[in-house]
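Risk register update: the risk of archive-format incompatibility is retired. Evidence:
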Amino acid sequence: MLITIEVITKDTMTTASGLLQELWEDMDAVEAEEDCYRALQGQDTAIFLAKANDKHVGFIFLSLRKDYVEGARDSPVAYIEGIYVKEEYQRQGIGERLVQQGEAWGSAKGVTAYGSDAELDNLKSIAFHKKAGFSVANRVVCFIKPISLKKQPKQAR
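Archived output:
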């Protein structure tokens, strides 16, 4: 099987958008297309597609994060916003090739760190990241609590 990695183009935007929606099932088509368009236009984002023979089977969505990234000493950081390989093409080195492409992209941008994240219960993703050379920087559980909006009392003058 011939595996190639290519940067997103106007001609592959629809394909990339569909792959983004396969990974993020709650993402609608408009949002996916906007992400792809930003990757085409931006200096701080990129999408690379993996092709097996003549079929697009995965992607890596990268950004330069300038805010704090857990475990990083410098900023910005090349960051994997999403990585996906269709299930039937997994365990064939495609994901690792995408990670390597992302690292090369970050290096060309002059960054010295490469970040990513995974949900605590996504053991498959955690194992993949470790195999690809990432180390765990921190483990965290995030919380949210809704608050009700109440009318503010008038302040005395």
